[in-house]
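Pilot study result, target chain (253 residues):
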Amino acid sequence: MRLFLYLYRMKNETTIFGIRAIIEAIKSGETIDKVFMQKGLHGELFQGLELAIRTEGINSSYVPVEKLNRLTKGNHQGAVAQISPIEFHDLDELVVNVLESGKTPLFLLLDQLSDVRNFGAIVRTAECTGVNGIVIQKKGGAPINGDTIKTSAGAIFKIPICKVDHIKDAVFHMQASGIRVIAATEKAENYVYNVSFKEPCAIIMGSEGRGINPSVLKVVDDKAKLPILGEIESLNVSVACGAFLYEAVRQRS
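Predicted structure:
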């Protein structure tokens, strides 16, 4: 079976191609970040790959064959997977460790950010501002790849990152641990400067197009927004995240 496992390095990421290779990688416990599958493919082997992806809750998408051809120069057989360059942390263990350390927790929850460069820039800022950990959703978010590593300036290896089935799972976990959850949203009435970040807290940032999921907004403890003085209605999410995190730093200094 391992004859089908082809690995190569491209832009600092590990890519697997071939349906059997990806199935084997999943079974062996590799930390797979995302699987790209060719639209319109059928067959027993391809169905086996789909089943393995669903069973393990792996992020995946169906793409045109041209996309797969760009991802690899090999015979991809209709499927390409990216192995995450990092090991993900357990959320419960991370929260407990931070609380027991005596530090005032500051976590960052990212609700399905889709742009890898935004993700990398946010990770870099989070590391610089002392964030204790970042939580992302298993499906629907940007993969951790070579572009993420480059944009984060290597910070992706220095800050714990956790994955959850749904970002609401992280919200409820934080709240049960005595950590206030603050949503960064233009739907807020208060400006970020009028919200306290001095106590244990977690900040949620939404996706580039949709923002924070409405179902998530319903369960947060507080909401805050940044003042917009120009004609453009919103900031880039990585810029907005930096403003929120440095306000937390300012209040805690």
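One observation from the pilot: The mean pLDDT is 89. A full batch analysis is planned for the follow-on phase.
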